[in-house]
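User: For documentation purposes, I need each entry recorded in a consistent format: the amino acid sequence on its own, followed directly by the corresponding structure tokens. There are two entries in this batch. Please keep commentary to a minimum and don't merge the entries.

Assistant: Recorded as requested. Entry 1:
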Amino acid sequence: AMGLKEELLKSIWHAFTALDLDRSGKVLSHNLCTVLNVPHDPVALEEHFRDDDEGPVSNQGYMPYLNKFILEKVQGNFDKVEFNRMCWTLCAKKNLSKSPLLISDEDAFKVWVIFNFLSEDKYPLIIVPEEIEYLLKKLTEAMGAGWQQEQFDHYKIALNTSREGLSAWELIDLIGSGQFSKGMDRQTVSMAINEVFNELVLDVLKQGYMLKKGHKRKNWTERWFVLKPNIISYYVSEDLKDKKGDIILDGNCCVEALPDKDGKKCLFLIKCLDKSFEISASDKKKKQEWIQAIQTTVNLLRAGSPPLHKEARQKRKELRQKLLAEQEELERQMKELQTANENKQKELETVRKQLEAAAARAAEEEKKRLQTQVELQDRFSLELEREKMVRQKMEEQVAQKSSELEQYLQRVCELEEMYKQLQEALEEEKQARQDEETVRKLQARLLEEESAKRAELEKWHLEQQQTIQMTEAEKQELEKQRMIKERALQVAMQQLEQLELERKETLEQYEEVKKKLETAANNTKSWKDKVAHHEGLIRLIEPGSKNPHLITNWGPAAFTEAELEQRQKSWKGKKATSE
């Protein structure tokens, strides 16, 4: 149904585009309904073509109406030639060339219908060079002439340089000009066009005179047979005016040769479900051609395939689309290669410029190097002269330095004396740091003991509160225990106070030691300042510690391990006497 609709649209497109932009679409619609055997719908027609600005003035306006009210209702029971002739009548006068043609208007009409069959399925309609070649070959074959491939190739090259293909009217001009039928008379060309028209448009696969045996009287009568994809029609003569009957073909039909009988030769039989037909061809060649043509048609019906010329047209279109897709892919790849090539060229140009720039820089650097070399030579000469002068001055200064050396040795002695005093100050500072470290440890230990006593007191206090909550019978016993614990608490409190006093004493000792440390540090700093004043003359060497130092949270300890143990023993002795 879709293929039929596409074929109809091509002819209607020619008719519609030939109309003036007025309400003539109404006439076209009326004529289409008539030739396509579609019921007229005057109400829809008037509604669609009412006298206002919304009427169809283009394909966009007319196509919805055409699809809905006409093409959707087409059943296929219409005369294809009559339909095409109506569309031809509307467009031929406006488009046909005014120059005289070697073919008649009837032949031009048939070429126009063939164009619609072979043209591409896009608008405006054109026929591509491959299809033009196919049509011209068919016409040349029908005329019995030789095909001039070289001539067509020249024409094809000239055509391809200007456009994709020809319009219907340009194709009519091409065939009517006789360019590809030179030496042929008009009648031969007309017969060739008619033969190709019958095959491609009317689906006439084969036609000719043969004898047919009657079913009733059993007599043999000459008839004009026309083979189409699903039917064989037979007429009185080739003008097709008086049709005598049809042989309906389907997949169940078959055709077979018969032996000569009743004085008739070249016999064959067409078997259908309801009837069989005996036919006699004029010679063995014609008999074989007809058997082969009918068998091919039946095989196509059995396979559900379209006629060979339609299938060939579809294959050519598919091949063109495939080639077009391949060409587009090739063009895309070529563009990519071209882009890559351009990028490479740009990269090479950039590298070339960089090399040129590098060469220029190298030349410039060489020039600068030579200039620098000359400058260095000049400078070296000047430096050499200056060095001689300096050497003379230095010799003069050596004598002067000899006297200064004596003064320097005297100053070294003074510095050595200062260094001894500085060592003593450092020893005092070290002793002060050791005292500070001992006091700090004592203070930490006292704090820990105080914290433990406080925890014990809190524990006793909690136990005292728990005993208050016990029963009355246990109160007296608990009271005694409480008195004992109270006394113990008082003793602990006294100890805590004693510890507090000791901690204060320790703090006072710490403050004294701290003051001593500050004094020692100030002395050290003053000695360091004095030494720094003479730093350019002598380098101080500080004595290293003889015993390994302890490392505390505050840094290196002020006491050695032995000194710390001595102080701990002393502290424990004091604590024992106080208790």
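Entry 2:
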Amino acid sequence: ILLLCLSGMRAELARYSVPEEAERGSFVVNIAKDLGLTGEELLARQARLVPEGEKQYFQLNQHTGDLVVREQMDREELCGQSEPCLVRFEVLLESPLQSFRAEVRLTDINDHAPVFLNKEIVLKIPESTMPETRFLLESAHDPDVGNNSLQHYSISSNEYFHVYTQRRNDGRRYAELVLDRALDREQKAEVDFSITAVDGGTPPRSGTALIRVVVLDINDNIPVFTRSLYKVSVTENNSQDTIVVVVSASDLDSGTNGEIVYSIVQNSVENFETFKINPETGQIRLKKPLDYEEKKTYEIDVQATDGGGLSTHCKVEVQVKDVNDNAPEVIVTSLTSTLSEAAPPNTVVALFNVRDRDSGDNGRTTCELTGEQPFRITLLAADAYALVTSETLDREQVEEYNVTVRARDEGSPSLSVSKTLFVRLLDVNDNAPTFTQAIYTMMVSENEPAGRSLGCLSATDPDAGENARVRYALVPPPTGTPAAASFVSVDAESGTVRSLRPLDYEKVPAFGVAVRAADGGSPPLSAQAVLRIVVRDENDNAPVLLHPHPDSSAAGELMPRWAPSGYLVAKVVAVDADAGQNAWLSYELAKATEPGLFRVGLHSGEVRTARAVTERDAARQRLIVLVRDRGQPPRSTTATLAVALVDDFSDAFHQLGHDPASGEQPQVAEEETLTTYLIASLVCVSSLFLLSVLVLTANTLCKARVRAELSPPSPSCYTDGDFATEGMGGTGTLSPAYRYEMCLTSGSGRSEFRFLRPVLP
């Protein structure tokens, strides 16, 4: 992509010449030398010719720099009588952009001979015409110019006439026939001779016509025009048959000698094709509309002839007035149809010329752009413009532009033309991909087989082509952090997230990993998002018992026989490593020695009596508690409890250690030994506690006795009967064989400390 900048542009004018009708391939000039470049530089900078018109007449050899003729050119066809005849073009060089203007002048060659429109010219001259009288002759036409055009006239030898070659204001030559001696109709009624028109070429070319002079009988008055020169202006937009001017002549003779007939002396092809005259009224009308751009001035020779053959001449000058009948033309010489969106301001997009064939204000033009677009027009030279960018471009906002250049002239009314240039922007990787979400959360069931699709990442890139192709990847975690990439993978093209191995909710309930979306630009741009994987728990763990310990065959519990309904015997404690309802546990009594004696809390796991214990209930009760979770399918485990019914806690060892009906003595031996140790420990601790209480009581009594010596005693005594019903009931969990005495010091009725001591029988 070539970025063209105005700073590297310049416009120069080079002039060359070549003869018309030059053969194809004819050498004109070596442009490389004029530009100071070599053939290799011309080729590298892609030198090319841009014609001013639609046709290309020259060709540039990029290897040698030679400018040669591409097509034969006829100067008369291209320029007519205009001089100089110029063929203009531009030489464009790129990297950087340079524009060289050049013009080649077509030099005329003598390829046309003068031609008379009428091969026979008839003149009627009265015999009374005086010598030295001049007669205007029809001019010959030679389309060549300069020295190759018609230069002079000559006539064949005769005894009555000679010819003078005169020159008009526009440079063209015409002939006047001069009478040398008086004519005598009676001696010679007709004089014939030839006239030759010769151009100045080398070798000269000529054309010949026959002049036949008819000698008329005497007519002593010739017609007289009211003016010898008529000047008139006609606008070019007049239609056919429009009256240009009316010439008028009078004759003093009477009769037929006084009757005047008007005619145009055909001195050029243009006059013959453009004007006509009414022979009776002298009205000159248009045969066709005039065109100021083709010819600006006409000279018409009008002849008035009376009935006797006498004639006179006048000249009519017609000035063609320009009207604004040509709209401007926009000629694009260079166009960059594809432009990078990264092109800086003032980048050249197109070069073009504006041409208007009118003149004056009608030919003065201005250029403008229609609509709001990031372009502007810069004037390079007369009628040469450049379309450049005015600001930075963004393909993601506008991908292509239809830039309309409007050229308007200053005529009244003004004419305009529009030219639309198509410019497409090429993408540059200036946009990073964008994730549709900042955080993606995906679910996966634990123990799901590897390779399952968990979801899909999605990122968009407003660029185009390879710059918009998004590829996905996991971002490597920092050193020392768990490698989440070992759990999941991301498809680079589609963004599909798949598991690499089964996951365990109890080990990894959830984890996060950074993902990157990078485009295919150079250099690539990227964006990051967070991928969070949440593991959905499955019921893959059975409940685990904490109490009773699962390794023991049965847990021993003591329960007094006087236990009422609802008495708390034991509590089964279990946990489940799963989550949610998979970890919700329920308890139920699966099996019992006396099924109606016990019940189990559904959610608490507490084992309580369903009724009061009776004498008929066995001293040893064995319970199996089923612990079940709420997963699908549910998982469960069982707990075994051994409950001993005792009259009081002193019989616990005896009841637990001797059971003649028990057939499971070997299995529970270890549990009974442990129970014995526990009871022994309890007795020791209780003894130490009671001893401490006795010491403390003795100390208190000693202090009380000392205070009694200082003040009257006021003891408060509480008998056993005072606490019999208030503090210690007969329905407690301890054996009635135990009794307690409570002693309080004086004034301790509100004390929060109570000292108990057992009263042993």
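Summary note for entry 2:
The longest strand covers residues 206-216.
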